[in-house]
């Protein structure tokens, strides 16, 4: 049996009756993409594993939608079988672990004193960050495939059917709803919303970024990152699946088969655009924005203008996850479990280590110095680079 194209492995297509034929045609007659061979280089940094622990399940229960969440002195992880755990960031010791009677698919979101996860059935669970005790359970309209977010007043959840819902932080009661029509064919995934002040920023499968009032859900502005092009629904997919990035009141977002763009947070005014295609979120460091594109090319762009500063195309078809900055270096992991360390100045490789042979699918999180990695075997590791 031929292997499914590496370009389609990271996501499943959803929302269309002919999905099976599309995947079948790629499997039966489409090209096979093998991961690029790892290049040799001189290691310039030392990769220090500070600790490692096993907290949740294996590959069958760890997915890209279940990213780790970072809180005060704790990193939170979850798996699809309902396990949620809090780990001490200093020691790797498990502080608490709970099992929810639900198939989790979105998380882990961290709010003020709360940890939030969502399920394939539209459940949203809010747990006390300190103890894991359940504060409330709410139901939304469809599956939750990204991390909810909260600010101590409201919890915001984005669902697969094109909705963003505001829930009371205290009891989970619905406060407001914002809804858009979903394109016929989309990537299986959604962007995770972010909250800044009284504004919620969210990206959608129609290629647009929206700013909403955190109090009412009313739209403040919208900005189109990508315009659907082509004759088939597959060609016209322009999903924004990566979480928007907010730095110094500038919103950065990237779409699949479209562009990466920068917008003013207050007005949505476009600042710059650059052609790009990615279903990951972005990273920021040294006044640069980093993206891992759909073909696994890693690029750095000047945050003020979008000028491409460097490109690293030596990780093609390795199924990279979202880039992250830690200890002054850019990091990205792949489906074979390798953690790659790149210079922020020119994109050259400066370090590499293998986290686990099962691979790393979930986005990594960083506190600026330490990088926390959830591998596909359910292990959580903390790394620092010197």
Which terms summarize this structure?
386 residues; disordered N terminus; 1 helix; Methylamine Dehydrogenase, Chain H; mainly beta; 4-stranded antiparallel β-sheet; Lipocalin
Radius of gyration (CA) equals 19 Å
Basic shape: globular
Determine the N-to-C terminus distance. 44 Å
**Major β-sheet profile:** 4 strands, antiparallel
- Number of helix segments? 1
The CATH architecture assignment of the domain at 39-58 and 282-386 turns out to be 7 Propeller
Share of residues in strands: 35-45%
CATH C-level label of the domain at 39-58 and 282-386: Mainly Beta
Helix content: under 10%
Give the neighbour order of strands across the main sheet. Answer: 2-34-33-32
Count every beta strand, where a strand is a DSSP E run of 2 or more residues.
34
Structural class: mainly beta
Per the CATH scheme, the topology name of the domain at 39-58 and 282-386 is: Methylamine Dehydrogenase, Chain H
CATH superfamily of the domain at 39-58 and 282-386: YVTN repeat-like/Quinoprotein amine dehydrogenase
């Amino acid at each position: 049996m031929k292997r499914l194209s590496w370009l389609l492995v990271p996501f499943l297509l959803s929302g269309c009756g002919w999905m099976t034929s599309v995947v079948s045609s790629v499997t039966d007659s489409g090209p096979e993409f093998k991961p690029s061979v790892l290049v040799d280089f001189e290691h310039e940094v030392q990769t220090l594993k500070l600790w490692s622990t096993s907290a949740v399940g294996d590959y069958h229960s760890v997915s890209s939608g279940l990213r780790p969440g970072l809180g005060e002195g704790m990193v939170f992880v979850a798996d699809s079988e309902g396990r949620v755990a809090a780990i001490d960031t200093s020691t790797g010791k498990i502080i608490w672990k709970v099992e929810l009677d639900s198939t989790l698919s979105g998380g882990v979101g961290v709010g003020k004193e709360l940890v939030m996860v969502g399920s394939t059935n539209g459940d949203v669970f809010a747990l006390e960050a300190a103890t894991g005790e359940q504060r409330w359970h709410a139901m939304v309209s469809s599956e939750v495939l990204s991390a909810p977010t909260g600010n101590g007043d409201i919890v915001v959840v984005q669902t697969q059917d094109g909705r963003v819902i505001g829930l009371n932080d205290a009891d989970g009661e619905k406060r407001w709803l914002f809804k858009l029509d979903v394109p016929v064919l989309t990537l299986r995934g959604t962007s995770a919303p972010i909250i800044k002040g009284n504004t919620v920023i969210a990206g959608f499968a129609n290629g647009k970024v929206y700013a909403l009032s955190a109090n009412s859900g009313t739209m403040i502005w919208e900005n189109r990152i990508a315009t659907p092009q082509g004759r088939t629904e597959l060609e016209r997919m322009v999903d924004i699946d990566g979480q928007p990035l907010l730095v110094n009141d500038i919103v950065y977002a990237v779409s699949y088969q479209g562009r990466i763009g920068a917008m003013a947070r207050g007005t949505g005014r476009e600042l710059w655009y650059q052609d790009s295609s990615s279903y990951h979120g972005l990273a920021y460091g040294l006044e640069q924005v980093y993206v891992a594109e759909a073909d696994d090319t890693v690029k750095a762009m000047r945050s003020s203008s979008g000028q491409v500063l460097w490109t690293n195309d030596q990780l093609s078809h390795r199924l990279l996850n979202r880039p992250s900055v830690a200890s002054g270096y850019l990091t990205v992991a792949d489906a074979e479990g390798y953690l790659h360390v790149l210079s922020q100045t020119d994109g050259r490789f400066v370090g590499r280590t293998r986290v686990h042979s099962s691979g790393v699918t979930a986005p990594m999180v960083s506190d600026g110095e330490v990088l926390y990695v959830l591998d596909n075997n359910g292990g959580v590791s903390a790394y620092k680079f010197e």
